[in-house]
Design goal:
- The chain is an alpha/beta fold and 309 residues long.
- It is built from 10 helices and 12 strands.
- The strands form 3 sheets. Strands 5-4-3-6-8-7 form a 6-stranded mixed β-sheet, sandwiched between helices. Strands 10-9-11-12 form a 4-stranded antiparallel β-sheet, with no helix packed on it. It has a two-stranded antiparallel ribbon with strand order 1-2.
- Helix 1 packs across helix 2, helix 2 crosses helix 7 and helix 7 packs antiparallel against helix 8.
- It is globular and about 55 Å long.
- The chain starts with a strand and ends with a helix.
Length: 309
């Protein structure tokens, strides 16, 4: 743990150490107060950091809760391969909440057409899994700097028996005191990385030597442009005839469903180069690359009210 001294010789934690300590405290608080927590793990950079925090929080004991991926079935194969490998290395239990299973069972209807995406169907899969396994707390990797609806949310975000979130009825969190009380059927979404920025996440990845899916670094990929977003050429994406496919050097700032997750033009192949790019940008990762947030001004908040992450 790195420390710096001030003018009078006192020692203070660095920014990353402070953020890490806060996240570890939050994880330990959940493990102490809840009976059945779960950590949402997609294989993306934020959930990779979450797993590292969990390792440190409970070391040398194993991570005391399972991890769960809400899988649309339209994810990047590189990310799924990384997810499975990382979970196997840690020896934690992986639960996959499958959107495809819900579609096959007739519980949800898959959207069709040019703007079709299974991303919103993740809510139904998540809520069903929470009910099936009786989870009373779910760790998520959301950060306040990502999107304005997430900026509204508390670290401990209460969800009612229907999994819904009411932004006007949140519990106070004064002096880092968290209200963990829930009735049967209710749950808490917990966001230990709330106060981190995208740049903090990348600096932490570099400091800890964490591995990431290869798509976070520049590579050649066939893409096409739609409304300023570079979407991948994929059998899952309905493309118009006038949307021309071309090959470019790109990387991804965030990972998710291929139908709504865009790439950015980039030549950054190392952590230092990615950090330099992030430091220079003035657009959030979701603002630049997520088509599902462009449906309306309140697209994310609407999904979160329904039970989204």
């Amino acid at each position: 743990m790195s420390q710096v001294s001030d003018a009078v010789g006192r020692y203070q934690l660095s920014q990353l150490d402070f953020l890490e300590a806060e996240a570890i405290f939050i994880m330990r608080e959940v493990a102490a107060e809840f009976e059945r927590p779960v950590l949402l793990f997609s294989g993306g950079k934020d959930s990779v950091v979450m797993l590292r925090i969990a390792e440190k929080a409970f070391w040398p004991a194993p991570i005391p809760f399972p991890v769960m991926h809400v899988d649309t079935g339209h994810n990047f194969p590189e990310v799924i391969e990384f997810r499975d490998k990382r979970v196997a290395e840690l020896g934690v239990r992986l639960i996959v909440a499958s959107v495809q299973d819900l579609i096959d069972a007739g519980k949800v209807v898959e959207p069709k057409g040019r703007w079709a995406s299974r991303n919103r169907l993740q809510t139904a899969a998540l809520l069903e899994a929470i009910e099936k396994y009786g989870f009373d707390a779910a760790f998520g990797g959301a950060r306040r700097d990502e999107e304005k609806a997430r900026d509204k949310e508390r670290v401990f975000s209460f969800r009612d028996e229907f999994g819904q979130w009411d932004p006007k009825n949140q519990r106070p969190e004064l002096w880092n005191l968290y209200n963990t009380r829930v009735h049967r059927g209710e749950n808490i979404r917990v966001f230990p990385l709330s106060n981190w920025t995208e740049l903090d996440v990348w600096h932490y990845i570099r400091r800890e030597g964490l591995r990431l899916p290869s798509i976070y670094f520049a590579h050649r990929r066939r893409v096409f442009e739609r409304d300023g977003i570079l979407l991948p050429d994929s059998p899952y994406v309905t493309r118009d005839e006038d949307e021309e496919v071309f090959e470019a050097s790109v990387r991804y700032r965030t990972v998710g469903d291929m139908t709504c997750t865009g790439a950015v033009l980039s030549t950054a192949t190392t952590l230092d180069e990615v950090i330099a790019e992030i430091a220079a940008t003035r657009i959030t990762e979701r603002g630049q690359t997520r088509a599902d947030d462009r449906g309306s001004e309140a697209a994310m908040e609407e999904r979160k009210r329904e039970g989204y992450f």
